[in-house]
């Protein structure tokens, strides 16, 4: 059975017109496929579930404001080693540390507005898919 991961193209990716570029990079990977996709502005309840482990951290409130500031694209991507692969394609969280050829290295400008989220483990992917796509969990 192929691995599944949740990917969020954040409000900055949508506002800057980078959704097609990022989706293209994901779709061009051999053996990966989009299993679900939805454009929506994320509500407080969804974000609170998604970012529960960050409550109380200094970046939590600014992150919540940013993530609810406009529409995001939520995706389920399936394929071999897709969790590790999408994270490598995304690049390091800090765009100054993300290598050229990665999404963040090529397009992101600041750490908080870094274009893309990708699940970091099979357990996170399962939890996050349940939050964003309960019918696909």
UniProtKB/TrEMBL annotation:
Keywords: ATP-binding, Cytoplasm, Kinase, Magnesium, Metal-binding, Nucleotide metabolism, Nucleotide-binding, Phosphoprotein, Transferase
Catalytic activities: a ribonucleoside 5'-diphosphate + ATP = a ribonucleoside 5'-triphosphate + ADP; a 2'-deoxyribonucleoside 5'-diphosphate + ATP = a 2'-deoxyribonucleoside 5'-triphosphate + ADP
SMART domains: NDK (SM00562)
Essential cofactor(s): Mg(2+)
CDD domains: NDPk_I
List of catalytic residues: 117 (pros-phosphohistidine intermediate)
Segments forming domain Nucleoside diphosphate kinase-like: 2-136
One Pfam family named in its UniProt record: NDK
The UniProt record lists the keyword Iron-sulfur: no
This enzyme's EC code(s): 2.7.4.6
GO molecular function annotation: nucleoside diphosphate kinase activity
Superkingdom of the organism of origin: Bacteria
Subcellular location: Cytoplasm
Main location: cytoplasm
InterPro entries per the UniProt record, alphabetical: NDK-like_dom (IPR034907), NDK-like_dom_sf (IPR036850), Nucleoside_diP_kinase (IPR001564), Nucleoside_diP_kinase_AS (IPR023005)
Positions of ATP binding: 10, 59, 87, 93, 104, 114
Cited HAMAP family: NDP_kinase
Subunit structure: Homotetramer.
Similarity field: Belongs to the NDK family.
Job description of the protein: Major role in the synthesis of nucleoside triphosphates other than ATP. The ATP gamma phosphate is transferred to the NDP beta phosphate via a ping-pong mechanism, using a phosphorylated active-site intermediate.
Protein name (Swiss-Prot/TrEMBL): Nucleoside diphosphate kinase
Organism: Streptacidiphilus monticola
